[in-house]
Design a protein that fits this description.
By secondary structure, the chain is an all-alpha fold. 39% of the residues are buried. It has 19 helices and no strands. The protein has one domain. The longest helix has 24 residues.
């Protein structure tokens, strides 16, 4: 890190080869924590020490924390910064997405939720700077650490638990890339993980509210959000009240579009709605969809043959094939009566990106879908192994061997 410090100093873009040292602290802190988990060391002490290690690794870069940076013009990060800055300067919650596409439209036209997270940072600290990137990495690290702490006593086959730890570790450099590029997927997974941890702690209300916000960050995950909410509340005594509160948060995009644009519209739609379908192939409409679906299925093998960026494919090959294997393995590990639930959640996560998703910033869609599917197995495994009265009594769990 010290050797690469000079080339990163004064670098004006959010991400690039000059910032290679910024890819070290998060994976290294995760490696330390997960190694201790594997060795059976005290998990709480390991958690604190890994967080301390993460902070210490950033000391050489303290002078860079207040440096601002810019995104490339067509990057998603540029769009989110534009609308977030406009909201802060105008003192409004009106997203103003029309400014991106040169229209006066006041409805959401890009993913709605992330801009408010970024706007809060800009409102508190004045601008998007290197400290913002560091904070986002810390937030993700906190989520992962809490996930393993809260699920430590859930019965899982040791090989599967090892596979999950390896998947998290090998995908860490890609998470750093998402954060550095100002993309939304890392925040969606962080919110999802926090929701699961609250659920493991028997705090269903914050869990389902965060699950509702998951769909606010990434609207393609709305059906995933609904199914996860139903799973979490189905044994609760006040399930209808919880469903009402969840729905109230889920409909945030509708409130915005109705109030500011007078439109009963939930989903974000580009200025040209036809661009929702991202086709990278020629042929008739049916053949375009068919080829698109096959192509996106192949991406779960970890290699994008239409992409000539070797580093991107290397980051993908490091984690995506393993994640795909873990999801397939999960189907056979879970009890037969729960397979339909797992299959439904996996399907509603993956299918929208097979049809409508492009392959920009590969493998962001694949990573999100696999991560959610893998952690969903832990949720279902926890609930299927232990009756409700035992879970609430706090008398469980026994670790798998």
């Amino acid at each position: 890190m010290l050797l690469t410090r000079p080339i990163s100093e004064g670098f004006i873009y959010s991400n690039g080869k000059a910032l290679v040292a910024w890819y070290i602290p998060l994976p290294l802190a995760l490696f330390y924590f997960l190694l201790n988990v594997y060795l059976g060391n005290h998990i709480i002490n390991s958690a604190w020490l890994s967080l301390l290690l993460f902070v210490l690794l950033w000391i050489p870069f303290m002078n860079d924390f207040t440096d601002s940076y810019q995104y490339y013009e067509q990057d998603d990060g540029t769009r989110y910064r534009l609308v977030a800055t406009n909201m802060v300067q105008a003192g409004t919650l009106n997203a103003g997405d029309g400014a991106i596409f040169g229209t006066q439209d006041k409805t959401y036209m890009i993913q709605p939720g992330y801009r408010y997270y970024l706007a809060l940072w800009i409102r508190l600290f004045g601008e998007e700077n290197r400290m913002y990137q560091l904070f986002n990495m810390l937030l993700y690290l906190l989520a992962i650490v809490w996930l393993f702490v809260s699920s430590a006593e859930i019965a899982l086959p040791e090989r599967y638990r090892m596979g999950l730890m390896t998947f998290v570790l090998l995908s860490a450099p890609f998470v750093v890339k998402l954060i550095m590029l100002g993309l939304t997927e890392w925040l969606a997974i962080t919110i999802f993980v926090f929701a699961v941890c609250f659920y493991f702690s028997k705090q269903v209300l914050p869990a389902i509210l965060l699950i509702a916000l998951l769909a606010f960050i990434r609207q393609n995950l709305v059906f995933v959000s609904i199914l996860l909410m139903l799973w979490m509340v189905m044994t609760e005594k006040k399930k209808w009240l919880l469903i009402f509160m969840y729905t109230a948060v889920l409909l945030l995009p509708l409130y915005h579009n109705l109030y500011y644009a007078g439109k009963w519209q939930f989903f974000s739609v580009y200025d040209n709605p036809s661009t929702f379908f991202v086709s990278e192939f020629d042929g008739s409409p049916v053949m375009k969809i068919f080829k698109n679906v096959l192509f996106h299925i192949s991406l779960y093998g970890g290699f994008n043959w239409r992409l000539d960026n070797l580093l991107t494919n290397a980051l993908s090959l490091a984690c995506i094939p393993l994640g795909t294997y873990l999801v397939i393995r999960a189907f056979f590990l879970i009890s037969k009566n729960l397979r339909i639930w797992l299959l439904a959640i996996v399907a509603v996560a993956i299918v929208p990106t097979l049809v409508f998703g492009g392959s920009a910033y590969y493998p962001r869609f694949e990573w999100v879908n696999l991560f959610i599917s893998i952690v969903t197995l832990i949720v279902m495994q926890r609930d299927s192994f232990y009756p409700r009265h035992l879970r609430e009594s706090g008398k469980v769990f026994q670790s798998a061997t």
